[in-house]
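Lecture notes, continued. The same structure-token format from the folding unit now serves as the input rather than the output. Read the line below as a description of shape only.
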């Protein structure tokens, strides 16, 4: 038996993480021409979740399963990374814009999930006249 999952708390924490990541990306963009500046990023949200020991559990055999053995992870080689610009810093505006797009999509997904669960919650507590 697992403990309860607090979806709204989890969504709130991810929204806070997304705000921190967006602020970091903004700082990178603002310093794109600063000589010697090194681009920064925040710890991935999945790593933060891994530290909470939250595990997925199926409560019914008909639930869709996920096997971590099917997932493949790859590392980016130094030869595949983006070039350093003339100011000798590591900020790539293209990379930062890609990251900003990822944050936007993740925030939209987070908001959609919260709205859906809120609607489900509200419909379950409504009484019929």
């Amino acid at each position: 038996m697992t403990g309860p999952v607090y979806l709204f708390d989890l969504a709130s924490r991810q929204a806070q993480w997304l705000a921190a990541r967006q602020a970091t990306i903004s700082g990178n963009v603002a310093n794109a021409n600063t000589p010697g500046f090194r681009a920064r990023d925040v710890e991935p949200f999945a790593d933060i979740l891994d530290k909470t020991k939250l595990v997925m559990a199926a409560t019914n055999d008909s639930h869709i399963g996920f096997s971590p053995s099917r997932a493949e992870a790859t590392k980016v080689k130094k030869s595949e990374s983006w070039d350093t610009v003339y100011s000798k810093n590591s900020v790539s505006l293209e990379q930062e814009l890609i990251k900003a797009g990822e944050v936007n999509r993740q925030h939209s997904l987070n908001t959609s999930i919260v709205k859906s669960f809120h609607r489900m919650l509200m419909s379950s507590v409504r009484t019929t006249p």
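Point for the exam: Confidence is low (pLDDT under 50) at residues 66-77.
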